[in-house]
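Justification of computing resources. Each target in the renewal requires a structure prediction run like the one illustrated here; the chain below, 355 residues long, is used simply to show the kind of job we budget for.
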Amino acid sequence: MTQLTPPQAYLPSPPVRTPPPSTTPSPDDGGGTTKLIDLVRACDLAGVVRELGGLAPRERVLAQAGLLGYRRSVDDWRGAAPSRKAALSAAELGCQVTPAAAAAWLLRHRYFAPGTWTVEVLRLYPPAWRAELAARLGARATASDTVYTVTEHLVHDTGCPVPASHEFVLAWLFNRAKDRARPAGMLGGVPGADLPARLRADAFTPVLLPLAVARPGRLVLGRPGWLLGALLTLAAEGAADRAELVRNLFADIAGAPPRAAHALPVLTALALTPAEHAGVAPARTALVDHLLGLLRKDGEADEDGTDGGADPSEVLAFLRALAPTPDENALMVRHHRALLNRPEPVAAYAREALT
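Resulting structure tokens:
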């Protein structure tokens, strides 16, 4: 990540203001805080942006406390007019001197409604500042469309690298699926009638799709089925390697076995060919061993609660979906014999496997 640059290096030199002699600095030094709050009260969004452009870094820092106090003084902020909310959001974001502070503010207020003012406030900062902000937001991306759209705008605006975190990849896929319009001036978004079409047209796809294929389990297990469906569609079109997708997905499932409710839709959607079924035999064998071990526990809970108390019917459905071969079942004779004294249908499955 880019090294943090001193705030003075980011911001242009402000107009010279001479403070009164022999006074203790206060949040109202230079009048910046008072004027910003007056502009927020007046819902003067354009005035807020203009005032921010003339504040020195020190004045911005001092203004933060005054703005926070103003926010706290409003009894029902949720019921405030949208124009006043936008004016305060612009003032607060524009008073964040460093990219780290701006990222923290955006993540803390990640559900604010972005607008053209968001672009105007961000333009008050130099490209290097905005690029570092994009990197920080990308590393901590959330399900918030606001955080994603701001990050995407910054990437297009500055030409900085596309964030490569798992969180950003997931945020990217969800945002593309929703296809929400951007405010005027905010860069990002792609055309397309559905998710696969938008991914085909997306400049981010060559960078982010390989990352999705490298760790697909973290993206699709327990997620809506259309996420895996989009990956499989692109793989069928040659935009991704299906063999790699299948191999990596089974590695993820074997490395952190999910509950059957999460795994079964994935296995069904994959519809493995005989060659693919054989190709992931080591991962499937590890999963079979794990699932038979759950049945042997007879419902006892693990300390972390993730595997314990598994529903035997779900575990059996998971096992049947994995479709172990006779040779693979032969490796599990010890497990199957131990299950013969369990209640039906667990004992029936053990007899079937031994036969």
